[in-house]
Design the sequence.
């Protein structure tokens, strides 16, 4: 709560500074905003790569039996569904752009990019050496490499060499998270700078209309995922969604108020076992995995926010672009485990990595507190559904 108040205060202070119209002060705010953008770009590559590698690398140690297989399948299906719902809602609602002057700096970098065909774009994602994507900060190539390396590590037989590699990666990730927490601690200063930069030239009515529609898409997508999509998954497995939700409500409500799937996990496990009647061996296996990789709300947020920021940067949102970012949002959400500020920071990292106008995310940050509550509730509800469906499938097979 204190952090939220501080962020809102920083946003208001920045808006006031921007409205003052003092050139030297605006110059200082532009400088600070640029500093934070460069810091985000610095952390973007290792954040995404290490998160995805370490997440997928743990697959091998968690087992590869029927329970794990169904957990992964249902996780992928529900996460893809969440991203697709977000994409369809975004196209339908069609949030308008912020004023051109606001995103001119980010827009200039994107506008200079050479036009290329869809196939050429796909080929550019496939790296021909390891060093080039790292030096260029090519996020798409690095995601592909991270996915391959993570899966490769999971398939290696357990050995001392494998343990050393995984432990080293986890150690680097811990160090990175320490740096991220330090950056987040100073983030109110960045919010002041971003807010001042925006309010210097933004028409309040246009911003309210644009951001309002954006919020409708994000929250609307989560509501549809919660009350329509996930219940349809349950109905497809001949499970009563009302019964499942009523039994799992303590965990869902705790997720809503704590904004942490990990903190809610003990309650989710106990509720699944005691109230929903899921077998202990399934609940204690499925739910920790889901807490790590099953991020329905996060996938929708990354997809919608990325489309919104790229649109404001001048990127044409063709069907191929939307499909590509559905894939990116799903992979990024799965690799989101353990990242402070979760989806928001990953989205910020992705946008920084492609030189999109990250200043747009400055006015989204205070709103993200509410979005995060809803997202976490959706994530835990999805975890519960995956657990219930896995338990139902394996029970049916055993009885048959």
Sequence:
């Amino acid at each position: 709560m204190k952090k939220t108040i501080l962020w809102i205060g920083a946003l208001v202070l920045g808006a006031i500074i921007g409205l003052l119209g003092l050139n030297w002060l605006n110059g200082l705010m532009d400088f600070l905003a640029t500093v934070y953008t460069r810091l985000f770009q610095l952390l973007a590559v290792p954040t995404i790569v290490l998160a995805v590698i370490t997440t997928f690398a743990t697959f091998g140690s968690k087992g590869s039996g029927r329970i794990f297989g169904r957990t992964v399948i249902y996780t992928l299906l529900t996460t893809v569904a969440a991203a697709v719902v977000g994409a369809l809602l975004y196209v339908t609602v069609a949030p308008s752009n912020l004023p051109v002057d606001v995103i001119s700096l980010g827009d200039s970098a994107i506008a200079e990019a050479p036009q290329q065909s869809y196939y050429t774009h796909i080929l550019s994602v496939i790296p021909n050496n390891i060093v080039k994507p790292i030096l260029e900060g090519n996020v798409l190539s690095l995601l592909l490499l991270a996915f391959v390396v993570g899966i490769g590590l999971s398939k290696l037989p357990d050995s001392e060499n494998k343990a050393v590699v995984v432990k080293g990666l986890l150690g680097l990730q811990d160090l990175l998270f320490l740096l991220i927490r330090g950056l987040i601690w100073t983030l109110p200063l960045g919010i002041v700078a971003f807010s001042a930069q925006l309010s210097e030239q933004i028409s309040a009515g246009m911003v309210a209309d644009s951001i309002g529609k954006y919020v409708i898409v994000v929250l609307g997508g989560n509501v549809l995922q919660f009350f329509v999509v996930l219940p349809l998954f349950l109905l497809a497995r001949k499970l009563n969604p009302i019964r499942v939700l009523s039994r799992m409500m303590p965990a869902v409500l705790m997720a809503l108020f704590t904004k942490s799937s990990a903190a809610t996990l003990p309650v989710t496990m106990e509720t699944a076992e005691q109230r929903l009647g899921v077998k202990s061996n399934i609940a204690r296996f499925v739910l920790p995995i889901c807490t790590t990789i099953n991020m329905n709300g996060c996938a929708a947020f990354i997809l919608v926010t990325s489309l919104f920021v790229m649109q404001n940067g001048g990127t044409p949102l063709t069907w191929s672009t939307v499909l590509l970012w559905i894939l990116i949002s799903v992979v990024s959400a799965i690799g989101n485990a353990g990242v402070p500020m979760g989806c928001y920071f990953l989205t910020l990292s992705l946008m920084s990595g492609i030189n999109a106008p990250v200043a747009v995310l400055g006015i989204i940050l205070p709103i993200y507190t509410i979005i995060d509550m809803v997202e976490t509730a959706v994530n835990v509800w999805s975890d519960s559904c995956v657990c219930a469906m896995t338990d139902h499938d394996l029970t049916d097979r055993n009885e048959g």
Residues 5 and 366 are 9 Å apart (CA to CA). Residues 104-118 have pLDDT under 50 and may be disordered. Residues 23-57 form the longest helix (35 residues).
